[in-house]
Amino acid sequence: MPYPEMMVAPMREDLVRAGFKELTTPEEVDQTLSSENLTIMVVVNSVCGCAAGSMRPGVAMSLSNEKVPEVLTTVFAGQDLDATERARDYFSGYPPSSPSIALLKDGDIVYMMERHQIEGQNPFEISDNLKAAYEQYC
Fold this sequence. Notes:
There is one protein chain. The protein has one domain (5-130): Glutaredoxin. Helices cover 46% and strands 20% of the residues. It is built from 6 helices and 5 strands, in the order H-E-H-E-H-E-H-E-E-H-H. A 5-stranded mixed β-sheet has the order 1-3-2-4-5, sandwiched between helices. Helix 3 links the parallel strand 2 and strand 3 (71-76).
């Protein structure tokens, strides 16, 4: 069962403030992620502590890089269930993971940071890992 919206609104806002577009329906996910010739970041947001303490701040910090994805999107696991499930359909080869960060290029997944790679990392480490991915794929 989803958390009350008033509780998760600040968690959503962390990424929206950084320039991310929320995808809340499967249709929005398909419309955005099926775009070819673009580099798209999809952040699977979560209420967990590692999302709040490391992932969201690290993602925001990573955007100070010269190269960044052309499209910044987010779905919220446990909240926008259908949109999250549809986004995960694009992450072939990876099990569901919340939080997680995917980078798609020309419709194919080229980079994935799963929960086990986020837990125990500080925002600076997450930012550095993402910046390296941007340099390679953006």
